Amino acid sequence: MTSGWRGNGTGNSGINMNSDGVSFTASGDGIGAVTDLAKPIQLEDAIIDMVVNVSPEFKASGTSLQIFAQIKGGDWAGEWNCWSGNELLTAGTDTAITCTISEGDKKFNQLDSDVQIGVQAKGTPTGTVTIKSGKVTLKQTASSSSSTGSVYSANVNSLRELADFTIGVAVSNNDSPTYNILTNASEKALVEKHFEQMTAGNIMKMSYLQNTQGNFTFANADAFVDYAKSKNMTVHGHALVWHAEYQVPAFMKSWSGSAADFITALETHITTVVDHFEAKGNLHSWDVVNEALTDGNPSTFRAVDSTFYIKSGNSAIYIEKAFLAARAAAPEATLYYNDYNIEQNGAKMTKLEEMLTDFKARNIPIDGVGFQMHVCQNYPSASSIAAAMKRVVDKGLKVKITELDVAINQPYCDSYPANKVSTFTQSIALAQKKRYCEIIKAYIDTVPAALRGGISVWGTTDANTWLNDLYRTEFNNEKISWPLLFDSNYNDKPALRGFADALQGVACTNL
């Protein structure tokens, strides 16, 4: 269910929304609460399930509740045959009520109009009714394979249109042919509808662009950037320098020359790449250096596992040299240092803050920090996330959420596997919705408008999340991370509604 509820019925005094749910004062026959489902949606044979709680006054009034659905527009055809008698309701106790859309004339087999669904009091009621949760389960088709058996509408026409800062997404190219943004029509439709910026998951990293020294290959990245430009999208460049073994070209890993010459080779790579894409005109920002800090306490610069640190003479000087080269090649681009786990506001954030202080003191050209934000359902807290971002804001630097996903299962937090979630239920989906909302709200509340670099999610659908491959062994080949805004069939998830709620200033709830 969406959280876009409103009062319904003549004389309705409106609704109240809080962590308990959506409440209305049942002051007369037909008074209730409704929410919209956007077209196209076919509700014939769908099942509406709600959990409600009525006050003692409502129970004592002897009145009943009615779930209903109406087509919005035309003659306002509706489903009015559902009834939950007073005898089914217990004051102060959550009660499940249901309705099946089964009109004989098949009036809900339509694609042209939005639909509103809701619940209303019938008779001469008094007291209050609280809707605790709701779910619409559509009639199953061969193409519907969500784990709950339902197809959900978040009632979000376009996520990017709700924000006054950039909303982006990471996509695949020839690195993942099944989900290639250039050839997969479903990927294109989803991305073009909701996002205004794209990040390439892999193809703009070093080994893809310069696998052997002096030989640059731009064809795949060019096609990706040109597609973005054709759709009036910007591109966030990811990433100029990253230590990961499989992303560092062999010629750099086997470098036998001097540290000074290695730095020169690194600067040549950055200058060549940034110069090339500057000509495109839609590369607005770069992850200049990615994940250069350790997760220890205290955190330090990566050393033993970083070719860049080792070949630079066992020094982190390559970081500032990378920023200097990127600024020289792109004077107007926004330059970020990007890392994971800094949102925990611990030792890694402290080391990063130390580096930022040093860079600002020496005029090293860094504009902002990218918070990857691969977070869990319950960790870290929204307050820790906000506190970490505040430390960057206090430096006068931009904050960009670069790789957001919210894993339902993750081997290193939320007490996995003891608390393993085996089925993506409605209640789990709604909890994830609230979590997304709280994260986006923390960003908006903490980061001033002038310092908001934007928010990007790391992937389009649960079918193509990187987490399923990363944790293949821990998950025993099950695809149980479910971290993104859309399910494996490109359908909305409640998480999308939670993201939109925060952008619109709507309270974060699990409804």
What does this structure look like?
The chain is 27% helix and 23% strand. It has 511 residues and is of the alpha/beta class. An 8-stranded parallel beta barrel has the order 11-12-13-14-15-16-18-19, surrounded by 6 helices. It has a 5-stranded antiparallel beta sheet with strand order 1-4-9-6-7, with no helix packed on it. Mean pLDDT is 91; it is low at 141-149.
Q: Would you tell me the structural class of the helices and strands? A: alpha/beta
Query: What is the CATH architecture annotation of the domain at 196-331?
Result: Alpha-Beta Barrel
CATH structural fold name of the domain at 196-331: TIM Barrel
Query: What is the CATH class designation of the domain at 196-331?
Result: Alpha Beta
Nearest-integer average pLDDT: 91
Q: Poorly predicted ranges (pLDDT <50, ≥5 residues)? A: 141-149
Rg calculated over all Cα atoms: 26 Å
Q: Helix tally?
A: 13
Morphology call: elongated
| End-to-end CA span | 6 Å
Strand order of the largest sheet: 11-12-13-14-15-16-18-19
**How large is the share of residues in beta strands?**
15-25%
- The helical percent reads 25-40%
Q: Major β-sheet, in short? A: 8 strands, parallel, barrel
By CATH, the superfamily of the domain at 196-331 comes out as: Glycosidases
Task: Give the key terms.
single chain, 511 residues, alpha/beta, Jelly Rolls, TIM Barrel, eight-stranded parallel β-barrel, 13 helices, elongated
Describe the protein's topology.
Blueprint: E1 6-8, E2 15-18, E3 21-25, E4 32-37, E5 47-54, H1 56-60, E6 64-71, E7 78-79, E8 95-100, E9 115-122, E10 128-137, E11 167-171, H2 185-194, E12 197-200, H3 206-209, H4 219-230, E13 234-242, H5 250-253, H6 259-278, E14 283-290, H7 307-311, H8 317-329, E15 334-339, H9 347-361, E16 368-371, E17 374-376, H10 382-393, E18 398-407, H11 426-446, E19 452-457, H12 466-470, H13 494-503
Parallel strand pairs: 11-12, 11-19, 12-13, 13-14, 14-15, 15-16, 16-18, 17-18, 18-19
Antiparallel strand pairs: 1-4, 2-3, 3-10, 4-9, 5-8, 5-10, 6-7, 6-9
Helix pairs in contact: 6-8, 10-11, 11-13
